[in-house]
Design a protein that fits this description.
Structural class: alpha+beta
Radius of gyration: 43 Å
Shape: extended
Distance between the termini: 66 Å
Number of helices: 24
Strand content: 15-25%
């Protein structure tokens, strides 16, 4: 049909043209007849609204803040033919103008949005003086509407066939080539491109019968445009990702960064001299080459703090003595462990534990609620425990009754369990009896019926004690040579014999039994051990109690909930300078190397676990006081950062969780260097990727950070497994823009010549003043471009879209250059 559409010319074209279409029918390769048919097209004057669901994406997002001014606003439409569906125009160069366009106007005086009661839609009003500046040239609207086909492989050259097979892979896009200004509020809207469409969308009968544009370029009258779809956003600074990366500079960590002096209360350490070195709190990250903080503690402080928990006789005069908490007392397997005294007797470490406790107290309600929820999930465990307690009690009672019976009666009563009960040497009773010569038939139910009380056999020869069947089994075990001789007997009805005993040949001695007659066989029943083992196997997961056979069955479940929230995130909410004391002194656009402080990490974990146990016990939660609910400190860590506290046996900072299948990578065990990053880059691009890389021959080895977290909106940290010296010598630090959906735009003004991968606003103007005056990017090829500039600009909408497509940026900076 496009071949029959009228092409733009000097005379106005009709808005609803009638096309005379001719179709030639051939027979045998020759034209047989020609049919003519008239088609009435419905132009833009027949559309009053758009389906809201036709817009699938807005860029920038609705109500977005601090958008980079180099971005072109655009919308994506679900129906790929929609922009040209009501355009009754053709063009031999493929430059068909759309019947709708996207505009982007600055929110200012002279621009307003009013509700139209007739059309029941919002209408954009623009004063006549602002039209040439705020609205694009409709003569170039063809350049800013295109179709994108996704998933089209290199071997598939037919997009039409791909569209029929995968219709969701094809979208249409309207772009507004607006030159955005920094720190400005903008309104974007889809509006009709022809005056007939404007009149129809305003609820009026279209009076315009030709394809007159919705606004002429030299318009001298105010414009009222009905908005089919609209949204707003605000721009930020003018620099883009690449510019912001270029602003980063290395700064050496000043002495004392990461440390804060502590003021000791006179009431606690009154006898400590004020002339000595101050007690220090060292945060989670600190400057490299710093002395161990324990060595900077004033002499006598540890001893004075240790004496606080010693109550003298008569102290308090009958009133309870309130003492400071001893962090980790419930979790410590042995209070004499080195870490316990180090944690509680050093002011800096006690402050770290107190910060962990404070973080828990600030979130105590949600933690307690989550603990009860985990307990609710362990309801089946509680039911299993009660059943195990009942079964164990019944087992004890039955075991006591069985223990009082003669040996033979024990065997008779427990015959069905002989394959599951072990004797003292770890062999099943059935295997032991077979080895000792007792036939299978001696313990079967038929034997017990033949020898029960009142039976003929029992009346003729009653048993002295117990039952006759039990007495017979005992005598057989005590005289196995009888069974050896009986190996050649004919088997009586109902009485089996050992199948593996060969007849004794003449002159040979019978084999010795493994059970001596002087060592009566004893049936060992251990119901408690069995139930403890079964209970341990069934209670799995974070709410599982810790059970051992020697502990027996607990009277009730003691559970420790598990929380994988990184405590560093909660400390940042308290004060970012808890992580890096002195953070406020770090300048903008800074890259700095620090070291992680594992001692502080474990002190915080100890304080948090101690506070949670106390809070849960206060709220009558059945808590396991030796458990560790918090084992993660660093944000973004894959795994846990420390062992369970009941397994701590060394000094603080030496209990990193070893890497294993359940803890593939953990910050505390692998982090040796930390990179502190501060700058506008990290505020404007909060989801950027940061990693280290180095070249190994022709290959590139990358090292992702073991942990990554934020301290403020413009400050973050990344922990790496490599040491500081290795990072400086061999590695690059890479800042990579996270791949998003397609974005379009022009780079900031530059003095470099235009290339296909780098087009700037300055390439369309002669000087800075002209760049500033430029409101919309032109669609025509500038005459000033040199021979190396892309010649496809202005060819068609697809070529322009390819040149303005903004690819994700990856900037790699060598550390020994950036950091020196």
């Amino acid at each position: 049909m496009g071949a029959f559409l009228p092409t733009p010319g000097v005379a106005p074209l009709p808005a609803d043209p009638v096309l005379a279409m001719k179709v030639a029918l051939k027979r045998g390769g020759t034209t047989d007849t020609t049919h003519e048919h008239s088609v009435q097209l419905r132009g833009p004057g027949h559309v009053v609204a758009l389906d809201p669901g036709v817009v699938v994406r807005e860029e920038p997002p609705r109500q977005a803040q601090k958008i980079t001014p180099t971005t072109f606003p655009h919308v994506e439409l679900r129906e790929p033919d929609l922009p040209w569906r009501h355009t009754p125009l053709g063009d031999k160069n493929g430059r068909v103008p759309p019947w709708i366009v996207l505009i982007c106007v600055r929110v200012q005086d002279g621009v307003s949005v009013e509700w139209d009661r007739i059309s029941k839609r919002s209408v954009l009003h623009i004063d006549a003086a602002l039209v040439p500046h705020e609205l694009p040239d409709l003569a170039e609207s063809w350049a800013w509407a295109h179709v994108q086909v996704s998933g089209l492989g290199p071997d598939n050259k037919d997009p039409i066939a791909h569209l029929e097979k995968f219709p969701d892979d094809v979208i249409a896009r309207l772009v507004c080539p607006r030159h955005l200004r920094p720190f400005t509020r903008y309104l974007c809207a889809i509006v009709p491109a022809f005056r007939a469409g404007v009149e129809a969308a305003l609820g009026r009968v279209p009076e315009t019968t030709d394809l007159r544009p919705a606004w002429p370029r030299d318009n001298a009258e105010p414009v009222a445009l009905p908005m089919f779809h609209s949204w707003g956003f605000t721009t930020g600074e003018g620099e883009d990702f690449e510019d912001l990366v270029g602003r980063l500079r290395y700064r050496e960590a000043p002495t004392g960064l990461g440390e804060r002096p502590l003021q000791l209360l006179a009431s606690a350490v009154a006898d400590i001299s004020a002339d000595g070195p101050p007690a220090l709190l060292r945060g989670a990250l600190y400057a490299t080459d710093a002395a161990p903080v324990d060595k900077l503690t004033p002499p006598g402080v540890a001893e004075r703090l240790a004496a606080l928990w010693t109550v003298q006789p008569g102290e308090g005069a009958g009133d309870p003595v309130v003492l400071p908490p001893r962090y980790g007392l419930g979790q410590a397997a042995d209070p004499r462990s080195p870490w316990f005294a180090q944690l509680n007797h050093h002011p800096g470490h006690r402050v770290g534990a107190g910060l962990g406790a404070e973080a828990v107290l600030r979130h105590q309600e949600e933690l307690v609620a989550a603990s009860w929820e985990q307990l609710e999930q362990a309801r089946t465990a509680a039911i299993t425990l009660r059943h195990a307690q009942l079964a164990a009690e019944i087992g004890r009672s039955q075991a006591n009754r069985i223990a009082a019976l003669p040996e033979g009666d024990k065997l008779q009563l427990t015959a069905r369990a002989h394959t599951r009960i072990l004797d003292g040497s770890g062999v099943t009773i059935r295997a032991r009896l077979l080895a000792d010569g007792l036939p299978d038939g001696a313990l079967i139910p038929r034997m017990r019926r033949l020898t029960r009380g009142g039976a003929p056999v029992s009346r003729r020869r009653p048993a002295a004690t117990g039952t006759l069947a039990g007495s017979l089994a005992t005598r057989i075990l005590q005289a196995p040579e009888v069974m050896v001789r009986a190996a050649t007997w004919t088997r009586p009805n109902g009485l089996g014999r050992r199948q593996d005993v060969a007849p004794v040949q003449a002159g040979k001695q019978a084999p010795k039994p493994t059970t001596s007659p002087t060592q009566p066989f004893t049936v060992r029943l251990r119901p408690l051990d069995v139930h403890v083992g079964r209970l341990r196997d069934r209670l799995r997961g974070p709410a599982a109690p810790t059970l051992s056979e020697q502990d027996g069955l607990p009277d009730a479940l003691r559970l420790m909930p598990r929380f994988d929230v990184p405590l560093s995130r909660w400390l940042v909410d308290i004060d970012p300078e808890v992580i890096v004391p002195g953070l406020g002194e770090v300048a903008d656009d800074t890259v700095m190397l620090l070291e992680p402080n594992r001692v502080f990490v474990e002190a915080v974990l100890a304080g948090a676990n101690d506070a949670l146990v106390r809070e849960l016990a206060w709220r009558e939660f059945p808590v396991d006081a030796r458990g560790s609910a918090f084992r993660v400190f660093w944000d973004g860590a894959d795994g846990v950062d420390a062992l369970e506290m009941k397994r701590w046996t060394k000094l603080l900072g030496q209990h990193a969780a070893a890497a294993n299948a359940d803890n593939a990578a953990n910050a505390a065990n692998t982090a040796n260097a930390a990179v502190l990053l501060r700058g506008e880059l990290f505020r404007r691009y909060p989801d950027l990727l940061i990693y280290a890389a180095r070249r190994n021959g022709d290959a590139v080895i990358t090292q992702p950070p073991t942990c990554f977290g934020r301290l403020t909106t413009d400050t973050c940290y990344a922990l790496f497994a490599s040491k500081t010296a290795e990072l400086l010598a061999d590695w690059w630090i890479v800042f990579e823009e996270l791949p998003h959906a397609p974005r379009f735009g022009l780079d900031s003004p530059t003095t470099k010549p235009p290339t296909a991968s780098s087009l700037s606003w300055s390439h369309f103007a002669g000087n800075a003043a002209q760049v500033e005056a430029l409101e919309h990017a032109p669609a025509t090829l500038p005459a000033t471009w040199g021979p190396d500039a892309p010649k496809t600009w202005g060819r068609d909408a697809g070529a322009i879209a390819k040149l303005t497509l903004q690819h994700p940026i990856r900037c790699a900076l060598r550390l020994n250059e950036l950091l020196r």
